[in-house]
Specification:
Chain lengths: ~210, ~290
């Protein structure tokens, strides 16, 4: 598992989602990347029933890169508790319907997946309940496991095909974890951070 | 010899063109002759082929005419007795004999060339003492060092670099295999023979380490390649300890593999790879394409 950075690509007025994906596809292919299938990251959100005291939120997420895992993040009184489980966790959530009710807003990011030397590039279209919201680009540098050592290298790579929208600072979520070994859960947390931003922007869901 | 070769060549060409005539005849009129006037096209093609046969036949005759009668019987040595062989399965022996003669001839030629090349090459790894018997002292052998000495050298190198961890194991008897972990950047296996580095494999942090399989990351496959060049460069039969120490210092400089930009172009990436080369003297980072 290498270090992964997520980056929103700004939408232009006169360009649709598929056109933006197309535009970026052409750029990465011009760099020499080869398309290797598709990817999907999804997120379902559950809320605890109000009668059980202070309300809690559970996000259940899947990543096609780790197909045998289910990631769950429990938000409770300002803290986020991450958990990695196997596929049975989905069935467990079904059994919990009296306590946790599912919100109707499923968030997904999906699209083509590319490989270029040791880089893996994913161009994701983000949808909330099937409505297109924006383009989220994921870049993974697989040989390196510590974000601090390869951040400059990753930023150079991202700027190479995304241009000036790449900030000079690492993503908010990674900043306190730059010297730790990168885990699949870190990618999931970054996705959740971005999904929450897309949700807030549309005003569909309010978070505490 | 030369006219004989041309004659044989001419016969080959003739055979070829005759073969073409027959294959053309066997195929008959083909689709690519088209609809209109296909018979005429077929005939003209055949005509062309036949005239080339005539031409080649003339070549053969010419070549044969220029041959001279051999001055006397060929001296075939013992092989001439092969013609008296009457068992069926041994009659093919002659051609095999010619083949193996050609092979030994080639081997002779190649080994002469390689001797000339190797004697100029400075990367000599075996210690050949050409000095006279008088000056000879106990030859320092790099591949026959007692295990305790190897352990002492390795542990002193291990102490020299706090962020590089070296562990010694001896899975194949007396010779040591080193497992090197360089901070959280890379791992390497180094197989030693005495104090001579025999083999190096570099892999990523967290990959399973063994002597035979290569890394799944392109960047570490490149560094493995470069470390083979380094082990040859630093190899020194007379000062084996220094060779190992220099190699380890060179390997240690990769702890900034992902963070140091290239010394020449100033970028981190070139062809989507970080600077995978370290200068042997200055240890400065360069891209593969920027090192010259
Ligand atoms: Zn360079």
């Amino acid at each position: 598992m290498g270090v992964t950075i997520l980056q929103q690509f700004p939408m232009l007025e006169n360009r649709t989602g598929p056109q933006t994906i197309d535009f970026l596809t052409k750029r990465v292919v011009a760099l020499g990347a080869i398309q290797c299938g598709q990817f999907l990251v999804d997120c379902d959100t559950y809320m605890s029933t109000p009668s059980l005291g202070p309300q809690r939120t559970v996000h259940v997420m899947h990543n096609s890169e780790q197909p045998a895992s289910v990631f769950s993040l429990l938000e409770s009184s300002g803290k986020t508790i991450p958990l990695v489980a196997d596929g049975l966790f989905d069935l467990l959530m079904l059994k919990m319907t009296p306590i946790y009710t599912k919100k109707q807003t499923k968030v997904e990011s999906k699209g083509p997946r590319f490989e270029l030397a040791d880089f893996c590039i994913k161009l994701g279209s983000v949808t909330i309940s099937q409505n297109f919201k924006g383009v989220l680009v994921e870049v993974e540098y697989r040989p390196c496991v510590v974000p601090a050592t390869c951040w400059d290298l990753l930023r150079e790579f991202l700027q190479g095909f995304l241009g000036s929208c790449v900030p000079s600072m690492p993503p908010q979520y990674l900043q306190p974890r730059m010297n730790e070994i990168y885990q699949p859960m870190d990618t999931i947390q970054q996705y959740l951070e971005h999904f929450s931003m897309y949700r807030k922007a549309s005003g569909v869901l309010q978070f505490n | 010899m030369e006219p004989l070769h041309t004659a044989l060549g001419a016969i080959k060409v003739l055979r070829c063109s005759v073969g073409q005539v027959f294959s053309c005849l066997a195929n008959g009129v083909r689709a690519d002759h088209g609809e209109e006037g296909r018979d005429a096209k077929f005939l003209s093609e055949l005509d062309e082929l036949l005239s080339s046969v005539t031409q080649h036949l003339r070549d053969v005759e010419q070549a044969v005419n220029s041959l001279s009668q051999p001055p006397g019987p060929f001296t075939l040595g013992n092989t001439s007795f092969l013609s008296q062989e009457c068992t069926q399965e041994r009659q093919a022996l002659y051609s095999q004999l010619v083949l193996s003669y050609k092979w030994t001839d080639k081997i002779h030629e190649f080994s002469n060339l390689s001797v000339a090349l190797l004697s100029q090459n400075s990367l000599k790894r075996s210690y050949t003492n050409s000095s006279t018997a008088k000056r000879r002292r106990a030859p320092t052998s790099s591949h026959n060092v007692p295990p305790q000495n190897v352990d002492t050298v390795i542990s002193s190198i291990d102490r020299q670099f706090p962020d590089m961890n070296i562990s010694v194991s001896r899975p194949f008897g007396a010779n040591a295999v080193l497992q090197v972990t360089l901070s959280r950047v890379l791992q390497a296996v180094v197989a030693l023979k005495g104090l001579m580095i025999e083999w190096v494999v570099v892999k990523g942090y967290g990959e399973t380490l063994d002597l035979w399989s290569e890394s799944r990351h392109k960047v570490f496959r490149k560094i493995t390649e470069n470390s083979h060049a380094a082990m040859l460069h630093f190899s020194s039969p007379t000062m084996p300890e220094l060779a190992v120490r220099s190699f380890m210092t060179w390997l240690h400089s990769f702890n900034t593999l992902f963070s140091d930009p290239c010394k020449r172009c100033g970028n981190h990436l070139h062809s989507a790879l970080p600077p995978t080369w370290r200068d042997f003297r200055s240890l400065e980072p360069f891209h593969e394409e920027c090192k010259h």
